[in-house]
């Protein structure tokens, strides 16, 4: 019998958490490095985004400045491109790379990219699963209720699926970003290499988040097994 509030499966999640922490460090460090290198074209993130949007016949997309650091995102419901101040006003390789990535999502939306719409449809279930799935399973373990553990597993499965679907969405947006940065001559060949490093570091955070979700799925299964002891 395990002491109350002691979760013996925590050992499973620790490696994934360490990878996630490193991924966050890597993306911030890489962004800060290339945020210090100004573009030869002297375009801000917002100006570069507007140029790429026009290149793809997406002049209807509104570009807004959003609060928070690295809070950049595309909103398919409102058709808005929301760029943080570090990206919106900055003429750096990092800023333009991030802005182009978000435009990549707008292009996905225009082309009805299936994984993007699938991810959007998973949001409600994923929010519930990430909030209640694991706590419910852990609670079920302590009161020896297998039904609660497996209910938690089912709920958390939606969160894991969301993270899994996010991977191709983000990778594809980055590929579109690099392709459009080349096609519009926003970046030179040398600057493109820097933008690739920024987007690669950002992609690593999504991989790390998915690994954490996978580790938590395994934890719940282990809880179910331990609960039978």
UniProtKB/TrEMBL annotation:
Keywords: Membrane, Transmembrane, Transmembrane helix. InterPro entries: Zn_peptidase_2. The chain crosses the membrane at residues 6-25, 122-143, 149-169, 203-226. It comes from the Bacteria. PANTHER family: MEMBRANE PROTEASE YUGP-RELATED. This is Zinc metallopeptidase. It comes from Halanaerobium kushneri.
